[in-house]
Amino acid sequence: MQIHFYKYQGTGNDFVILDNRNGAYSGLTSEQIEHLCDRRFGIGADGLMMLENQDGYDFRMKYYNADGREGSMCGNGGRCLTAFARHMGITGETLRFIATDGEHDAKFRDNGWVELKMKDVDQVENGGSFFYLNTGSPHYVQFVTDIQEVDVYEDGRAVRYNDRFAAVGTNVNFVQEIDKGIFVRTYERGVEDETYSCGTGVTAAALTAAPGEAGEYAIPVETLGGHLEVRFLRTGEQQYEDIWLCGPATPVFEGNIKI
């Protein structure tokens, strides 16, 4: 099979993207997707996305983790797929698409940033030394004092494969409060390693970093791959609404590959 692919990245979180609106790539196997994402023997990416048609929406987002399995929501992926959709001629001030966790709105800033509306959050587990919540994907959040000293691979893997999470898995985020906002490093399930950035993880970290009182917040976030911003409205102790993940989403290259 000959595949025409596109490569996009959002703060270093990178994705292979396929235009599957005609169904040409629907038969790809998990092994083939894993091969395309392989950084030594394939194109290399944290995940693969397909742009598909969906009645009532501008498009449908289908996301696969780097291990070839269909994944849950990916925030940076959603922003990159929105930028790709615009490149492919899907236009509008606001684009609406459907993903595995429901519908999302996305819009563009003048500086090229893509703003993605995330699902509301109404349940946050406070475990004392950690928080656990779902922002489209499950996230374990732990605040630390020196994020550069954290062994994200070993410590993240220990949580992801502990007795509670081993069966389904969780993403693991280590967060340090800095002068302006927070710094986040993430171990991602499906990639099974640290990534340069994780959109749903950044969102989870920002929500748990906000002060306890209700109000509107805009949290600047630094990752290994660059700068993001999370805006939201806190309406109660565990209630967060109107959540927007904002940041760059840029093309890297396109090409053809035969598998």
UniProtKB/TrEMBL annotation:
The organism that produces this protein has a lineage beginning with:
Bacteria, Pseudomonadati, Bacteroidota, Chitinophagia, Chitinophagales
Gene that this sequence comes from: dapF
**InterPro entries recorded for this chain?**
DAP_epimerase_DapF
Q: Does the keyword Nucleus apply?
A: no
**Which reaction does this chain catalyze?**
(2S,6S)-2,6-diaminopimelate = meso-2,6-diaminopimelate
The superkingdom listed in its UniProt entry is Bacteria
Gene3D superfamilies documented for this protein: Diaminopimelate Epimerase, Chain A, domain 1
UniProt name for this protein: Diaminopimelate epimerase
Main localization (coarse): cytoplasm
Task: Give the family, as the similarity comment puts it.
Answer: Belongs to the diaminopimelate epimerase family.
Pathway listed for it is: Amino-acid biosynthesis; L-lysine biosynthesis via DAP pathway; DL-2,6-diaminopimelate from LL-2,6-diaminopimelate: step 1/1
